[in-house]
Amino acid sequence: MNIATLLDMAVAGDPDRVAIGRRGSGTTCAQLRRAAAGVAAVVHTAGARELVFAGLNGPAFPVMLFGAALAGVPLVPVNYRLSAKALTDLLGHVERPLVVADDAFAGAFTEARTTEALLKEALSVEPATGLEGSADDPAVLLFTSGTTAAPKAAVLRHRHLTSYVLQTVEFASAGPEDAVLTSVPPYHVAGVGSVLSNLYAGRRMVHLGAFEPGAWLELVRAERITSAMVVPTMLARIVEHLEGRPAEVPTLRALAYGGARMPHTVLEAALRAFPDTGFTNAYGLTETSSTIALLGPEDHRAAFASDDPAVRARMGSAGRMVPGVEAQIRGARSPGAVGELWVRGPQVSGEYQGADALLDAGGWFHTRDLAHFDDDGYLFIVGRADDTIIRGGENIAPAEIEDVLLRHTAVREAAVVGVPDEEWGERIAAFVVVHERASVDGETLRAWVRARLRGSRTPDTVTFLTELPYTPTGKLLRRQLLDLTRKG
Prior knowledge:
There is one protein chain. The chain is of the alpha/beta class and 488 residues long. Among the domains are: 4-182, Rossmann fold; 388-487, ANL, C-terminal domain (GMP Synthetase, Chain A, domain 3). The protein has helices spanning 4-13, 29-45, 60-71, 84-91, 115-122, 158-168, 189-201, 213-222, 232-242, 264-273, 297-305, 309-312, 398-406, 442-450, 478-487, and strands at residues 18-20, 27-28, 50-54, 75-77, 97-101, 113-114, 138-143, 153-157, 179-182, 204-207, 227-230, 254-257, 278-285, 290-295, 320-321, 326-330, 339-344, 365-373, 379-384, 389-391, 394-396, 411-421, 425-434, 461-464. Strands 10-9-11-12-13-14-15 form a seven-stranded mixed sheet. Strands 4-3-5-6 form a four-stranded parallel sheet. It is globular. The termini are far apart.
């Protein structure tokens, strides 16, 4: 099954339904299919083997995604924030690309067609037919964020993406007034998954190209948005913008978040700011075609209101595995203990371009996340295996210390990394951003951690920054923090 089949189903179900854009002036399912078929014709005429897209997440992105599928080539959405050299290096991973870029980013490429020009051409040519590939063909090549190593192109085939949608979404299940606000970049797997799942459900997609918390709230109100997805840094900025006030978005029934670890303090503040909104934590990886575990709205509210420590702790969990995905914890010393998370299922790719498949003989993929399950099957992600600090032979998860630091009223953001040390193997370096008009010193924060964790988990140093380095999708760039310790 090709992902273009999902578009064909949407057209067959209701060709005149607005799929993308504002109420009354957006693009219908039939118009989306026509534009995508035109893009496919342009790609085919150019003899391209890949369609590279450098642009904001807007109405053009679904056209490019389905246009590539109808042309039988993979879409390669790239991070438009990268330098011209970095983008050139990424193009070295593809064979014969047709590069399409928004006006603001076209200059970074030696040769690129602008998004506007391509869409205009697509509507003037004869639509392509019969070019779409099979379920085993690559649908999307997504470059991983490269927070711990050089970026690699993850291969998501049509069968991986369609399996994700068919297992987790009911066709045409959305109501006629349902609308989703998308502000996740198109080069993130959540951006791809959002297009496919919302089109299949029949939910109108509204885009916010450049995120700003005030603009996000205003668009939710103006377009009567019923659901949205954000990364944790976006939610933190929304909460900070509200300054304790209620969000006042009466139509917003569902708010999903994912892409990085959510601080407890931010989530608790968000639950208070959005009292009538159902929250969902969506955990997944690029290599798993988006979501593989969900913590739903009822679990969020139950945990938030509970006095039972075990139930309360579930606010920090990734929830339960979605249908069709299995999980194992390997290397744990006992049941329920922390180990390395392995997963398998029809949506799991575990494949990088130009590399051997990363699935083991049983079809299991090593996520490289440290995790454990509680007695009721809730998955807790502790951190990345590569981020573990080994101090005096003891394994320490940075998240454990970060969570304690974030409980201090002066701390807005916190990150912890391990720094090489001749005596202990590694010492603990904490980086902190304080709230505006707040004040605290490093020794006070060290004492705060020492009083709540074992002495071996007390940061050796505390460095204050005005901001922490993140990717646009909210992942902390620990390598940059480690570089700061070396420069210091």
